[in-house]
Each structure stands twice: as structure tokens, then as C-alpha cells.
Amino acid sequence: MIISYPKRSILSLFFLLLLLLSLLNLSKLDQEISIKKQTINDTPVTIFEPKKDKIDNILVFVAHGFAGSSSFMKSIAISLANTGYKTITYDFLGHGRHSKPYSGSITNENGATQLFVEQTSDLIDYFLNKKEQDELIIIGHSMASDIIFRVANTNDKFIGSIGVSNYTNQIKKNEPNNVLIINGVWEKHLRNKALNILESIGITNPQENILYGSFSDGSARKVLSIKNADHVGILYSENSQLSINDWVNKIMGNQYNIKTNHLGIWAALLFISVVGLFFLIVSFFKKQYFNKIEVSVFRCILGNIFAAVITPALVYFFSINFTEYPAHSYLINHLFLYAILVIIINKIPLNLSSISDFKLQDFTFLFCFFAFIIGSILDNYVSTFYLTHSRIELFFPLIIGCIPICFLIDSYYTNKRFILLKSLITKSFLIISLSFAIYFKFDELFLLGYAIILLIAFWVVYGFLSHYLMKRIGSFLSISFANGFTLAWTLAIALPMYIA
User: Fold this and answer.
1) Which domain range does residue 225 map to?
2) Rg of the chain over CA atoms, in angstroms?
3) Phi-psi region of 19 (alpha: psi -120 to 50; beta: other; left: phi over 0)
């Protein structure tokens, strides 16, 4: 598609203004609060504190869900701090910027659950020992909803607990104090579970949006559903912020003016503006010829079926321990072997001609855009994306598996026919083969399920953008290397560090 110069100028101005508007509004969100980062007992912590003095001697803890990070909870934390409550977010073991892994099953009370409970309790004790707070409120999303109710049940300093997208069986009739459960309207199973919890503590025919019990004796119980929200969107919803702040106000007996934010909307618009500018910048690149690689659909199907069956079987019996983390190590072996098998069967060439096609400037442009432009948006407003020391140690070995698989998939985009079909076939069979691996060693490799989600997200966002650039400049080897480095970066930071 050719865009005329006047249209490019108008679109460039539009996306630039949208970018500036988004950045301006995002910068306003924390103008009335201070945000400090520190590490307490090895746990990365972010403290959101009102600049205006508040008389409440209360501290609010906010915990993220499994495979997330404290960045996911930023919208809620900023809202609470702007309303007037000092708020703490933190990264669980093996998540986000935490340098240490977690171990044990998250479905076992004596496994990872106990580790996360102990970590949270230690963090709380640190602040209590400073004698800065007399009363506590704790909020947890998804997996953390179970963690926070367990913690609240063991500490009488907690005067309120809030489960977001709630998974737990720890809520009783009189403990913990003042329980609010909020789920997205599209989380039907969790909404039903929340009502079942109320019924199990003696409430007959419980309904959403009705207060049961009293704040005066800590028996308050309420279930809410948030409009137009799913498991992730609920964290950015203005209605979620209103519900949480209102609950804290009622527990404290305050009438603080609730301040919500549209962090999710502005972050999304920032992302759209950056992507729009990317397309426009690429349109200025001179269109170049590149060598075509042709693979038949039959050979593509044959190679992927063979690799999908052989790879999990071979890696099950023989693999190289690239890291101490079984899921990461297995993934490197699997991606590398799968890609090599299909490349050989497809007879995809890697000769001097294709090597000379590599252009450092194209690689640098795309990788920097992915890692530092889009990565900055993700790190600040979605989930941790920048590599810490422990994650850098994972990034480099992951390159071994990520470059070959990206080389394989990106090679189809130099084909003359059935490009999307062959790409889809390879991606589908790769997912199937990883699913086989999970089935064979679920206790050790269950995190591969999350790796599959990351792969799909990577293909949707980064894959789409990189293939648009490839059509313009050719240099498929430069693109595949940039994709390989970015995929390794993504898996290194987003896949929790787990030791069996």
C-alpha cells in the first residue's frame, strides 16, 4: 500500500500529537504523589505515597497475580495514593524484578503458596517493625487473592482484605476482616465462586452488590462484578478503582474524594501512536528486492508433523541443561531442535548469499524499537520488561533457541505463495509439540503453558510489525535475528523463574 506524501504528513502529525497527548496525561497521574523504589529482604518494592499529609496511620499492600509483576497493579496503586492512602506493590519470588526463583506447586498449600505467604508476611513485618502503621489493608489479584487472605487471617493488624478476580477458600464468616470480592463481568466462573463463598459462610441466597455484615465489627462482606472487564482489564478499570477506594474509605470511616485514573486507556493510545509512527517511518524506507525462498505446503506440513512428534520425545530423554530453571532450559532445547528439524526437511538454505543479506542497521533499528520503545511502554504500564541481572543470565542462552525458530517462521515470509498458511502451520504444530511436553512432565514443565501464551502474543504484536518491515526492506536474516533477540528478551523477563 502506497501512502502519498500529504497523507503521510497528516498521519505523522496525528500520531505525534496522540503520542504527546498520551505522555502528557500519563505524566499527570502521579503529580500529587511520590513514588519510591527499594528492595526489602530481597523483594523489589514500590511505595506510592500522597504528597499531602494524611492523618490515617494505615498502609495498603497490593499483590500481583501469577506470572505477572507489580507493574500490573500500578493503576490501582496510583488511584489509592491519589485518594490519600500510602500503598505498597511488590514482586513475588521468581516474578518481575525479583532476583530469586520460587519453588513448589502453586496448587499445593505447602509449596509455592507457603513461600509467597511467608514472603508477604516478612514484608509486612518490616513495615510494622518501623512502627509507621498501626492498621493494614491488603489487595490481591488472581493467585494473590488466595495469598492475601491467608496472610490476613494470621495478622490482626489487617482491617480489610480485597480479592480481585478471586481464587481462594480462605474466607470465613468472621475472618479476615471486611472482605470485598470483585470480579470482571466476563469472569462467570469466578463470579459464581464468589457467591458460593458467601453462601458457605451462612448467607442465604447471596447477591452481588449487596453489603452483608457490618464494618463496625469487621464482618462486612460484599461481592461486585466490574462492567466490561476480564481477568486483566479489571486491573485498569475505573470502576475497579472506585470500588476499591470506596471500600477502604468505608473501613476507615473516611469521606476522602476518590481519585481514579485512565492509565490503561492512555497507555493503549500511547502504544497505538507508537505503532502508527512505526508504519509511517517504514513507509519512507526504500523498497528493496530480496531473494525468495520457496517451500511447498506439503513439505511444510511433513516437516512440522515430524518435528512435533520427534522433538518432545528426544528432549524428554536427552537435553542440555542451559540453566537451573527446568522450564527455561527445556524451552531452549525444544525451540532449537524443532526449528533445526523443520529447516532441514524444508530445505531452507543458509548460504553466503543469505548471510550477506544481513544488514546491521536494519537489525539495530527493529530490535531497539521492540526492546526500548515498545518495551518501555510495557515496563511502565503493563508488566516488567527490562532485564535485571538474573534475567540477563537467562536472556543469552534463550537466544540459542529463539533465533532458529524465528529464522524458520520468518523464512516463510520470503515465499511466493501460501505465506500465512505455512506460518500458521508451523506455529500451530510448535504449540502442539510444547503441549505434548507439558503432558509428559506437567509438574516440572507446567510453565510452558504460559510460554505458549507469550509466543502467541509475540507473534501477534512483534511478528506483525517485523513482517511489515520485511516486505519493505527485504533482509529477512536481519529481521529474524531481531525477532530472535526480542523473543529471547520477552521469555527471559516474562516467564517466572521456577525451580522444581
Assistant:
1) 30-260
2) 25
3) alpha
